Amino acid sequence: MDRYDMDIVVVAPPPEHDTSSRIKEWRLKSQSGTLKDKDFMEFFKTESTKYFEFQNEMETVKCVFKESLAKEEIIDPIIEFMLGDKPAQALEKLQKEGNTATVCNKVFKNGEPTYSCRECGVDPTCVLCVNCFKSSAHRFHKYKMSSSGGGGCCDCGDDEAWKRDQYCELHLANRKNPLESNIITKAVLERCEICFSAILAFCVKFLEIEPNASMECLDGELDGANFCTVLYNDESHTFDQVIHTLTKIAKCRQKDAMEIVAAIDREGRAVVKCDTFKECNDLKEAIENQMIPHSGLHTARHSQSLRTSVLNINAVACQQFALQLLGWFQEFIVRHYLFRRTFAMLIQQKNEPFCIRHILEYDVKLWKTARTCWHRLLISGMLMEYQNKMVLAQEFSRRYATIVEDFIRDDHDHSFSIVSLSVQLFTVPSIAHHLIAEEGIFDKLLHTFYHVAIEEFIRNRTLHFSKDMASMAFFKRANYILYDLRYLLSFKPESFSEELRTGFLDGCKALIRVLNVMQGMEPITRQMGQHMDYEPEWECAFNLHIKLASTISQVIEWASSDAELLRKLYKMTVRALVSNSFIVGQAKLESKRCGHNMADCLIYDVSTQPVSIHLPLSRFYAGIYLHLGAHGMSYDSLLAETEALNLRLNPREIIQPVLCTQAMIAQVAAGMWRRNGYSLLHQLYFYRNVRCRVEMLDRDIVCLQTGASLMESNEFLIQMINMFNLLGWVDPSLEPGISQTQSDDEHVRQVAMADEFLELLIVIIGERWMPGVSRVTEQDRLRKEIIQLLCIKSYSHSELSRALPDGNAGNSDNIIEDVISSVAVFKKPVGVDSKGVYELKEQPHEEFNVYFYHYTKEEKSKAEELQRERRKAKKELVCCPPPMLPQLTPAFTSMANILQCDLFFMIVEQVIDSTLSGFGRRITESHLQKVLHLLGFAIQEELSDHYPFLSFYKSSQSIRLQEKLEKLARCPRLEAHRDFVLWTLQRYKQLQARQAPSTSLYGTGGGASTSAAALSGAAHSSHGDAPPLSSEQQQLREKEARSRLAAESRAKIMAQMQNAQQSFIKSNAEMFASELRATDDGGSMDWEDISSTDEFFTEGDEEEGAVGLSTGVACLGARRNFCSPTANHFKCILCFEDCSISSSGPPLVSSAFLQTSHVIYTAPSVEGPATALHVSCCGHVMHYNCWKEYYSSEETKEMRRPQRNRVPLNQPQNVEFHCPYCRTLSNTVLPVSEALPKMLPPAAAAAAAGAGAATWMPLDCFVELMRTLSVELKRSKPNDADFPNSQSILRKSDIVSDVAQLERSAQITEQPPLHANWLEVMNSFHKALRTAMQTQLLQPAANDEDMDTVSLAWITCSYTVQALEVYLYATQKPLRAELPMRHQSCMSNLVRACSLYSASLLSKEQQQQQRSSSTGPSSSSESTAKLIDTLLPSQCEQVAKLLDSLFNQKGCSVLEWDCFRMLVKLTFMMPNLLVYADKKAIIPSGSMFDFYILQSCFLANLTKALVLFNYEREHAKQLKRPATTESEERAMAMHEYVEGLPEKIKHNMVAFYQNNNFARITSLYEQGAVQQMDVSTTGGDDVAAAAAAAAAGCDEHELLVAMLMYVQREMSSFLRCACLFYRCMTDVEFPDSFPLEQHDRFELMCHYLGLESQLGVYFDMESVYATMMQSFAAHAKERWESLNLSLEKPTQRISSQLPSPPPRVIVPCQRAVPKLVKLFDDYSDLINSVSDIFCPNNEREEMKTPTMCLICGTILCGQSYCCQPELGKIQVGACTHHAHYCGAEVGIFLRIRDCQVVYLGRGKGCFVQPPYLDEYGETDQGLRRGNPLRLCKAAYDRIYLQWLGHNLHEEIARLNENANVAVTQWHHM
Ligand SMILES: [Zn+2]
Ligand SMILES: [Zn+2]
Ligand SMILES: [Zn+2]
Ligand SMILES: [Zn+2]
Ligand SMILES: [Zn+2]
Ligand SMILES: [Zn+2]
Ligand SMILES: [Zn+2]
């Protein structure tokens, strides 16, 4: 054994032995028969210690087991020994022989996708792995997908799992492969046997956590630092608790502690320390003594200490190797059947340490990974072949009690316990049946359950759960037994063998024992006087019920198929019921009378004695009873048998417990149990709830129906009436005069109880869609349920399936769907937000029953209302009559008799008579309605002819029913019920009509009772008027009369009008005709026609030439229009006072939201950082002072908010608030300013307006002036005294111009008169800009001087404009399309604010004025001076640089400019520097200078487009592009235009192209180099096309056409931005000629901006344009040759993360519209694509929550402890980190495995609807339903537009505000 010194880093020594010699030695031994498994075990033990390494560095231990070396040195020799000299070849040959596995058994990892077939799967547990699914027939069937919780395995190839298509292609092919092998000879197998047993023995021995391994390796050495403290996983401590312990006790650094914890979670244990035994042991004890602080949920388990042990290093090494060995071994035996056979044979040897029994039982002693390894081995080794599976199943069953008890004591998750194998074994039908028959597993499961889970709670033969939460944990674990039970019984056998029957009955006996103690559990007693002190525990009992309910249903289902079973089970149940004393045993018998009927009743006062909701035994009886009839048995036929056993159970006793519970429920409804608190109400809720009612409410009703069919009807009714305490109500003679003495309270109660009683009676008679009660099937039952549900409202697919009980049959889904489609139609969703819903067809409405027993009160009234509306619309009687009832089965037939028994008529008579006589105190309208409903049942039952004994009509005559009904119909008080009464009468008369032929036979003397007489009597007698009208009919008549009158008068008026009109037209005929002609002519004055006439360019220089254009509107330049005055009156949304903008008045502001953004800048460019700021603004106006008040109160609120809601990232950030009016998220304000041109003094404006072209400084002079300015700015500091004023600059620039001309052109004015607070607003806006930028830079707050916040404002302005342009483009909106208010007002507020700010910024006076007015003493002129001192130089420097590159061809070239951004910066920075020394100001508002800046930038952009034009590529694209009429027209126009150009211009164009175009130059230099430029398109096509075009010597004309069209297209982004920008600046509206539908047109935009739209003009060598373009182009060429530029690529988006300088890129004229990642169309493709993805920090760990960034497509390891990068010194989740860089603090992520989309922003977040929908148009967050999902483009577009429109923050805030979102630690995402 080697020991290593602690101080040296350990390196594995070279192998001591030559491996070949070792193999030789084994072979010799093997031949002599002396080779033992001990030899190998010793080998494993000594060798494995060599590959374990650890390092102690800085308190942290790092351990590594070198697996690859161990594989080579230990495992490979074994393989060689087993398979012979050339193991690799042997394995290869074996592969060729073909795999013999016909089942897949691939074990699923956590989160791996699984597929189940809804058509073929035998039950929902049958699943396929991706590979099998893809190559199986099921992919074409209806399938479901879900993601595995880990541990299950693929069922491909299992005959019993699938009804058909059991095999995928691969496994079907494997069936043909021979089981024998030429490679695996007998000798090989013998060697394998020895090796296998050595491997198994080694692993068994060493993997156990505690004693064996350590003892083995101790060797008595207790000194030396060769021990480890190992910490194990448990599920009772949280990550944070363990991290806390580690940092506190083991002194780990936080980061290391987190790594260790992640490892513990992953592998189940981790080494915490390596040191001497003492040190290690001390640590162990310290950890164990550490009391873990209580977490929120404190259960008994949480007080336990962490599990630790001290192990010898060698022991750890052996364990690590054993894990590796097991993993390898599992893969090895998968290779061939013969290996598995050997393995199975070995582990069946009972005396070996590795026998199955031991493996099963010692599972609990292992840690997580070790367990998983064994489980996988068992699955691979034992589940592939049926015989082995059976063997394992048998052993598993035999050990079941032990391993389950171990599991319950243990605290690992179920999937990490050997118990979880049950799903593999018990779901195989033949195995399950075998186990029940031979191993008594049914009995064993329930016995174990009884013993471990409930026995301790039994008091007095009934269950009473305690309120102790601690017991819940183990109770929950015990419930897994009941899941196993469900697996076991999920298949009803075809037939029963004697053994199976016995085994099953044994199980039933155990089940009945459980039910017996559940009968009456958690009893409740009505609380009188005081309220309950505490809410009693009730959940435990209901949980038990829920877990057991499906088993009960299954048992009944099994029993129903076998008469013998049923008989025995019936007797067993009767025996249990007789022995159970709950209620029945305590009640005494008493005789009760009602009317003329007497009955013996059990007396049990529900209002004082305990009752219970839980009566599983009675319900079980009812369940069994339902099936007796099908086997020719009945209560009576079995009576003799039970009585022979001395078991007497009469019908009264059967129903008594249920009746008590019903009475209690009725009393609750009558308000008698109010003091019992909420727990009772909760219980009653669940009693009816879809999850419980199948084995609760439904069975109770069957039980009462059983009683009703077994008892004489009057007797049954007396039982009920007595239990409801209503004898006196039914028979007033019993309590004479009592109604007077009754207190009001009692009276109200009695009325309410009577109501409940009648409703229960309706339910007992009417709810018979139950197989066994009447002649219906399960499908009919389902159908009824669905109809009733759809009568409430239309349901979406998921709502509907949630509202239906789970079926037990495997493919109930399909049945449900069939039934649904038979009664309803699916309405497809209409919008993105709506779901598709099912609507009930017309016909099934007839089956509606308003008293449906599953309805809640709300559902009932909703359904009733809908039904009435529907009938009204159809002009039917407006009421909800009872439906026709299905025919009762023979066993239940006598139930129908209730409807004609004495007591029934007595009740009917009572109710109707009291109603007619004015109700009295005892009867309400509700009683009447219910009685009518019952009468409806009775009439229809007789009409159905199902029951020959039924003679309701005859009996009804004794109470003169018809007469009474007619009276009711006429009674004016009963208006509301008239239609129902009429309906009843109609049906009654139908009954009467059928009696007609026979009435004469009966001929009883009572005159009016003969039908003929009755009929005529009804029509004409007593009152002699027409039969009463229904309310509907009456309304209809009135309506008809009214509408007839209306129609008549309308017709009259129409006729008059028509006459008048005709005479008018006649007299004015000529006038009409001329008007028509005029409109025709006007149409020709259209833009398109004029712009395509070519003379117009040639005359372009002469002003009068452009007739058409000069009439249009321009906002800039020589033809400039002036803004029309717009109203500026507002109402402050805070104080509601009227206000208007004026420069002297108090400033108005509008709340705005500032965010960092990466949406449209995809790469950093030369002019600034990659991140920009975006502003949005809702446009609601308030006083600045009002806002300040509001804001400070919001701020305090924010500070007071609980810590958990605050952003954990401790960076400074702008306080968020909501617009007080519209609640839009905001974090700053923008000033609302007047239109800029109005800020000019009237004189200046007039001068500008009146001046002719000659009075302006021309463009070339402007250029010269700018060049001079740039030199001056560089030469002298602006603070210097000699900083030149505008005049001196004018002089120096040496141009012919005067000062007045300059002043006119630049619109130089005095300082703008701004209110003192105006600058304060702007400064606060600036502060917000700076803060926002800092959060992105993650830097500590820089002082004012460090950050150029002023330029930030200009950049923000240009970015916001560009973002809007892109958004409009993406939504295909032209400029003139209606802009939402928030865009419109945001833009103008921002541009105006920037413009005014630029004019006042450099003025010391302005700044001082502001400071002194704002905060008093703290402000000083000194700080103002300082601000300007620092501000000025930076502005100067920037302007100088800008001017240099624009006019002096220095620095970067047009290729690297974003021309629009440049334009905005120049506009706001340059003019006021020009006049700085004059102490004057320039307000950029559309002056000639502004126009020149635009022209310069326009020319620059134009040059860039020309230079980057690629003829070959354009040509190729042109061919591919589908031709639209619009594009064709434009092409035609362009052709004509080019043809009309003067030759000189054409020549210039071609020359420019040849000299400057890059593609042209490159293609001249080297043919292949085109691609260098051409990064956006790839592929040989273009190259080929280029070559072809070059060979053809491209046609000059074609070239020019293509070039000019290209240029126009490429200019559109710049022009659109410019249009938006200048509109806000000049307030000149877009002209009406701008299109509303089509794309914006080049000519129109140019014209609006005052630019020349005819491109030919720019190539006139005489003009300054051509000179400028030439110099731009020359610079670009030079620059491009010196630097290796590349086109901007989207992939460089996150390059800001890299510290390296950003690459030099060409900024294209037209940026690609930003897009989100393209997603797979089929969701399963997406989920499969990440099924094998690993965490980037840990290659061994699969990502638990793979999360895709939808902006860039990166897949991140979300919300996990393994990936917690640092962001600004805080550890955050991978998504938060990524979002910071990728989306500038906001991100859109798709959590792939649970199909959820998350928006993340600044520590906040929200879940939004994922873009994947199923065929019903519904999302499936968390994959709960598993329907196949497909990408919904509309839904994805919505996410896209929210992102593109910068609305994510807003959306997050909105969703968080509205919903009560559980607090999520979003930054951990
Ligand atoms: Zn598979
Ligand atoms: Zn397969
Ligand atoms: Zn299928
Ligand atoms: Zn106000
Ligand atoms: Zn607002
Ligand atoms: Zn990303
Ligand atoms: Zn990770």
Automatic annotation (TrEMBL):
InterPro entries: ClpS_core, E3_ELL-like, E3_ligase_UBR-like_C, Ribosomal_bL12_C/ClpS-like, UBR1-like, UBR1-like_WH, WH_DNA-bd_sf, Znf_UBR. GO terms for biological process: protein ubiquitination; ubiquitin-dependent protein catabolic process via the N-end rule pathway. Residues 102-173 form the UBR-type domain. GO terms for cellular component: cytoplasm; ubiquitin ligase complex. It comes from the Eukaryota. Residues 1012-1043 are annotated as: Disordered. CDD domains: RING-H2_UBR1-like, UBR-box_UBR1_like. A zinc finger (UBR-type) spans 102-173. Its EC number is 2.3.2.27. PROSITE patterns: ZF_UBR (PS51157). Pathway: Protein modification; protein ubiquitination. It catalyses: S-ubiquitinyl-[E2 ubiquitin-conjugating enzyme]-L-cysteine + [acceptor protein]-L-lysine = [E2 ubiquitin-conjugating enzyme]-L-cysteine + N(6)-ubiquitinyl-[acceptor protein]-L-lysine. SUPFAM superfamilies: ClpS-like, Winged helix' DNA-binding domain. Residues 1012-1021 have a biased composition (Low complexity). The keyword Zinc applies. SMART domains: ZnF_UBR1 (SM00396). The keyword Nucleus does not apply. Signal peptide: none annotated. Pfam families: ClpS, PRT6_C, WHD_UBR1, zf-UBR. Belongs to the E3 ubiquitin-protein ligase UBR1-like family. This is E3 ubiquitin-protein ligase. It comes from Drosophila busckii.
